[in-house]
Write a structure and sequence with these properties.
Oligomer: single chain
Shape: globular
CATH class of the largest domain: Alpha Beta
CATH superfamily of the largest domain: Aldehyde oxidase/xanthine dehydrogenase, molybdopterin binding domain
Number of domains: 3
Largest sheet: 7 strands, mixed
Structural class: alpha+beta
Length: 726
């Protein structure tokens, strides 16, 4: 059965969310629920000398105040708090007297009410012995790692650069940024049916549960991870949080359910974030605009005690047909919590730097920026020489240019003027993101009355994963959307893979489709004839069976059965973008129009056109929503978002949504979205490549390039502020 183009359907869980019936992790009701609140460290580095809890214990309603003396038995292992298969976090607060970063928990107050927990936490007094620290990667006490953490090379880029007719050599700086999901990070631990269940908005319920079990010295099956919905993950919720094991341990010790919702201000100092980074980009081209070489060197902030890989160099060499490439990546150690994945984690900063450098090269060549990109299109990966499974980036550019009206572009900055005197700028940038997949374990039951239940691997983070699964079941089985029961994000129903990196749809869609096709096949064997176009449950009813159930394990290309066993043990198993015979990426082109007020230099993004090649579009409505969300985040990255670190005391000064500025409705103009919608059937049976991450890649660069086109000023740091343009 060949996959068809999907209709524009409402989100499968929209009704439940609008009515407030979709219960998130912190919404779960439990009798006798206790509330917890952490006490954050007020120093950036040092030792705890004493903790006075007497005033806190005296607060009416406070049940207990936990300190590091209560949690010394917690174990830290390399796998306990990791994500993406990388080494776990090597430091867990509150298991000893040391303080490694500002804001980490140093005490946990548990009370009958939230108000009592907050009052108790404010009453705890802690004495410290402070030590010297570094708050930023440019501090004198920051420690650069002596060797590069990664390197990419193809050909002799240095020689090509030295002999080129046209070159650019520029450095772009990207600031530290924070996620701020609408759903705050929370943990609820409760005993149900003899099992300790941990409810947390997580992107990896299985690895989360397994990591917690290991930290607490429990058997993995004694702990169940549940993530019914995740209200915005974006990479911040893909590992065990600093408070997770503290809440679980408190519930275990008190034998009562305990809930902690971390205040947003504390999350700036306990949760992961996008690290500060520097990007030196050198590009070389001949007189016709053919790219001869790219040399890309990055430096990224990291914590003292953990590893967060720098992977900025993975995508830029794949965007165009470079004759040669050299990439080096280094990290600098500082005294903060560990940074982590944030939407398009390295791809967004990398595209910002390299796509702005491409724009600068177009200026040096006197070429149209779109024409330069089209002239360097390629169907093969410059690093490995392998072909791409599918690549329609040129079509994204040409269709986007037509929809946007790129023919208005002029080579002279500041030449376009609006009727009110605003300077108009037009910018373009491209992006890519790996098309990755994970194994899945799926059980599908179809009843003769039309009820359909599927349990599979994956987490709903607002990206529309339930709608993706529903689309395949509707097409293959003809099920009624109102009779669908989709069970994901719960290790009690199916092994759960880490859902991130745009592989959610690329893994869940083939799993659902494979299960639906197997069910059709088994029903055909029962009936002894090929099935018709009639809904499958009606054909099942004629066999006089109440239901038919199938189970199927799906493996991504290049993986064997061992991947399923790793999935069952809660280990992240991800493959891509490199497969045995090809590389697979999603592609996008963004076009931005900005208006700059001539006296105040206020920048407004009036219009963005984005065209994506993400393989088969599983749901047009949720797909458009994903791209619009990515563009809005790109607007924030280009013009609004930055963490203001305090070099005197450590930590982030603007640690709330009043001062950490994000775009609001008034900042957003028209965002027009289109798709190539060509299935990538070489990759999987659903033809899906992924969209959520690539939606943001290149969006900020298009806006920065548009600001230059409007003003003639090339700003090489984010965000661009009014004072940069005066």
């Amino acid at each position: 059965m060949t996959p068809s183009r999907n209709a524009d359907r409402p989100r499968i869980d929209a009704h439940e969310k609008v009515l407030g019936r979709a219960l998130y992790a912190a919404d779960q009701p439990f009798p006798g629920l206790l509330h917890a609140m952490t006490v954050p460290a007020t120093i950036a580095k040092g030792q705890i000398l004493s903790i006075d809890t007497a005033a806190a214990v005296a607060v009416p309603g406070v049940v207990r105040v936990f300190t590091h003396g209560d949690f010394a038995q917690i174990r830290t292992t390399p796998a306990a708090r990791g994500a993406y298969g990388q080494p776990g976090k090597g430091y867990q607060p509150m298991i000893g007297p040391q303080v490694r970063h500002r804001g980490e928990p140093v005490a946990l107050v548990v009370a009958e009410t939230l108000e009592a927990a907050v009052e108790g936490a404010e009453a705890v007094t802690v004495r410290y012995a402070e030590e010297p620290f570094s708050a930023e990667m440019d501090d004198s006490l920051a420690t650069p790692e002596p060797e590069p953490v990664s390197q990419q090379a193809s050909g002799d880029a240095e020689a090509a650069f030295a002999n080129a007719a046209h070159i650019v050599d520029v450095e772009y700086r990207h600031p530290q940024q924070h996620h701020n999901p609408i759903e705050l990070i929370s943990t609820t631990a409760a005993f149900e049916d003899g099992t300790l269940r941990i409810y947390e908005g997580t992107q990896s319920a299985a690895a989360f549960a397994g990591g917690l079990a290991g930290m607490m010295g429990m058997e993995p099956q004694a702990l169940r991870g549940v993530s019914p919905y995740t209200g915005g993950g974006f990479g911040q919720k893909n590992g065990v949080q600093e408070q997770s094991v503290l809440v679980a341990s408190a519930a275990l010790l008190l034998r009562r359910p305990v809930k902690l919702v971390m205040p947003r201000g504390q999350l700036f100092h306990t949760a992961s974030y996008r690290p500060h980074s520097r990007h030196r980009v050198r590009l070389a081209a001949d007189g016709d605009g053919r790219l001869l070489a790219g040399i890309y060197e990055t430096v990224q902030q990291n914590s003292r005690y953990d590893g967060f890989a720098s992977d900025h160099g993975a995508n830029p060499p794949r965007l165009y047909g470079y004759g040669a490439w050299l990439g080096r990546e280094r990290i600098v150690r500082v005294d903060t919590q560990t940074p982590g994945h944030q939407r398009a984690p390295h791809e967004h900063p990398a595209s910002y730097a390299t796509e702005c450098a491409i724009d600068e090269l177009a200026g040096a060549l006197g070429m149209d920026p779109v024409a330069l990109r089209l002239a360097n299109d390629t169907q093969r990966d410059p690093l490995t020489g392998k072909p791409f499974s599918s690549r329609h980036l040129a079509a994204c550019l040409t269709r986007g240019a037509a929809l946007f009206g790129w023919d208005r572009w002029t080579s002279e900055p500041g030449a376009l003027v609006a009727a009110n005197g605003d300077r108009i700028g037009l910018g373009v940038a491209c992006g890519s993101y790996k098309a990755a997949m994970t194994p899945s374990v799926t059980t599908l039951r179809l009843s003769a009355n039309g009820q359909c239940r599927i349990a599979t691997s994956g987490h709903e983070m607002g990206q529309g994963l339930r709608s993706v699964i529903a689309a395949e079941l509707i097409e293959v089985l003809g099920v009624d959307p109102g009779k669908l029961d989709i069970r994901i994000g719960d290790t009690g129903h199916a092994p759960q893979h880490l859902t991130a990196g745009s592989w959610g749809a690329g893994s869940a869609a083939p799993a659902a489709r494979a299960a639906a096709l197997k069910l059709r096949e088994e029903l055909a064997q029962l009936t002894g004839a090929a099935l018709t176009d009639e809904p499958v449950h009606a054909q099942l009813a004629r066999t006089r069976r109440p239901f038919l159930e199938v189970s199927v394990d799906t493996l991504p290309l290049g993986k064997d059965r061992q991947a399923i066993e790793q999935l069952r043990r809660g280990m992240p198993v991800v493959t891509g973008p490199e497969y045995p015979d090809f590389l697979a990426f999603s592609w996008i082109a963004h076009f931005a129009e900005v208006h700059v007020e001539p006296s105040t230099r206020r920048v407004r993004v009036r219009r963005v056109v984005s065209v994506a090649d993400c393989g088969r579009v599983m749901n047009r409505r949720t797909a458009e929503s994903q791209v619009r969300g990515g563009v809005v985040w790109g607007i924030g990255a280009a013009l609004r978002e930055t963490a203001e670190s305090d070099p005197r005391f450590g930590g982030v000064l603007n640690n709330d949504l009043a001062e950490y500025v994000v775009p609001v409705n008034a900042d957003i103009g028209a965002i027009d979205v289109d798709f190539i919608d060509e299935p990538d059937n070489r990759l999987n049976i659903s033809g899906v490549k992924g969209l959520g991450e690539v939606a943001m890649v290149g969006a900020a660069a298009a806006i920065v390039n548009a600001v230059h086109h409007a003003t003639g000023k090339r700003i090489r740091h984010l965000p661009i502020r009014i004072e940069d343009l005066l």
